[in-house]
Structures are given as structure tokens and as C-alpha cells.
Specification:
Helix content: 10-25%
Largest sheet: 10 strands, antiparallel, barrel
Distance between the termini: 75 Å
Protein name: DUF6265 domain-containing protein
Number of helices: 3
Shape: globular
Order of helices and strands: HHHEEEEEEEEEE
Pfam family, one: DUF6265
Strand content: over 45%
Length: 167
């Protein structure tokens, strides 16, 4: 009868393999200036039509390494600021850094880019309460679908922001 080693014996003998695998999972994604340039379509003004007040996002190129954005709602004659955002590359990290009006003591929260798939950019900060992820998906020159997601209590939550370009 053939005997097989236990899982513990295999793991003990292959600790270095397990360590390499775990390190691979904890590594941060690395990006280049070329990857950052893929975010150029964000520049301009975007509109999300909603019954309870339209949301506008306006983005400009601040420098070779940074975009600056702001969002606000417009309901009748009332304009309400929502957030200011810095989107920049630092070393090999691309960072989405919003400052939400009336939240987080008006301090920025850093979300690091995790993946780029075509025109879809996923930013993540698993230590933040909500959202944990911010996604920008450029579907065409005039169509941007953004969403935020994460857990609130024990429930998964997602808020969608379908935008169309207005400038």
C-alpha cells in the first residue's frame, strides 16, 4: 500500500514556496506613466442626471503627474459641493485621493489603483469604512460609469454613477 505525506509534512517541506505565494498576494500593483496616461479621458465635465439633483464631475489636468477633480450637486438654484479629488502618480502607484465635504475631518482618503482592464480602473482602500472600492469605467468618449462599493454593516452596498460628457 502506498502512503502519502500529510498536508503538514508537505507544507513544512515547502515553507519557502508558501512564503513566496503569500508574498505574491500581498504585493501592491505597480504602474507606469504610460498607465497613468490612460486616465486622460477623465478631463472634462460629466453629468449624472438624477431626480433628487444632478451630480456634476469636472476634471482638469494639473500637471504631467496629476489630475484635479471636483463634484457637486445642482438642484434648482442650489449647488452643494460633494468632494474634491486629486488623482496622481507617485513612483509606481496611481492614487485617487478624495476629500469628501463634511467627512473624514475634511482629510483626503487614499485609494490605490489595483487594476486596469481596458478603460476600467479599480481603486481600493480596504481599511476605509465605505467605500472600499471606487471604479471608473470609460465605455466611450462620452460615457463614464463610476461606482463605489463596500460593506456597510454586514451588507454589501454599491452606488452607481452613470455619467455622460457635457464638455
Amino acid at each position: 500500500m502506498r502512503t502519502y505525506p500529510s498536508l503538514l509534512e508537505v507544507v513544512k517541506g515547502k515553507q519557502w514556496v508558501l512564503l513566496l505565494v503569500l508574498c505574491g498576494f500581498s504585493q501592491e500593483s505597480t504602474f507606469t506613466q504610460s498607465d497613468f496616461e490612460k486616465l486622460r479621458p477623465i478631463v472634462g465635465s460629466w453629468l449624472n442626471k438624477r431626480a433628487r439633483g444632478d451630480i456634476y464631475e469636472t476634471w482638469a489636468r494639473r500637471s504631467e503627474k496629476e489630475f484635479a477633480g471636483m463634484s457637486y450637486t445642482l438642484a434648482g438654484a442650489d449647488t452643494t459641493p460633494l468632494e474634491k479629488v486629486s488623482l496622481y502618480i507617485s513612483g509606481t502607484q496611481i492614487v485617487y485621493a478624495p476629500v469628501a465635504a463634511g467627512q473624514n475631518q475634511e482629510k483626503e482618503v487614499l485609494f490605490k489603483l489595483k487594476t486596469i482592464e481596458g478603460g476600467r480602473f479599480v481603486f481600493e482602500n480596504l481599511n476605509h469604512d465605505f467605500p472600499k472600492r471606487i471604479v471608473y469605467d470609460f465605455r466611450s468618449n462620452d460615457s463614464l460609469y463610476a461606482h463605489i462599493e463596500g460593506q456597510v454593516g454586514s451588507r454589501q452596498r454599491r452606488v452607481d454613477y452613470p455619467y455622460r460628457r457635457i464638455h
